[in-house]
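Hi V.,

Quick status before I head out on leave. The structure for the redesign project is tokenized and pasted below; the design run finished overnight.
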């Protein structure tokens, strides 16, 4: 176990990964906040496909990615309050000598 070797894979409780990633506990009822239990897990792809087809969810097409908005930005300098030259930024002020 020490020295960088792992004796056996780490097993997390069901829902732990989604709880960490999404900050939601999948075993807590969203309506009454009661504790839920896993009573079955479907591992066969054909059974999953059959259930999703029955519900009309198998042939759903993925949404296309959102269209990118192309904005053309223009800056109107005609009403600028800054002087036409930026030399005023680098002028040392003259202070009266006491």
């Amino acid at each position: 176990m020490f020295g960088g070797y792992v004796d056996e894979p780490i097993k997390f409780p069901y829902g732990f990964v989604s709880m960490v990633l999404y900050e939601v506990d999948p075993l807590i009822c969203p309506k009454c906040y009661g504790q839920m239990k896993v009573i079955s897990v479907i591992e066969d792809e054909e059974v999953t496909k059959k259930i999703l087809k029955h519900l009309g969810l198998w042939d759903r097409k993925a949404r296309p990615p959102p269209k990118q908005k192309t904005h053309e930005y223009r800056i109107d300098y005609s009403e600028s309050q800054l002087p036409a030259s930026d030399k005023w930024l680098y002028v040392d002020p003259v202070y009266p000598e006491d």
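Above is the designed sequence. Residues 1-58 form one domain.

G. will cover questions while I'm gone.

Best,
W.
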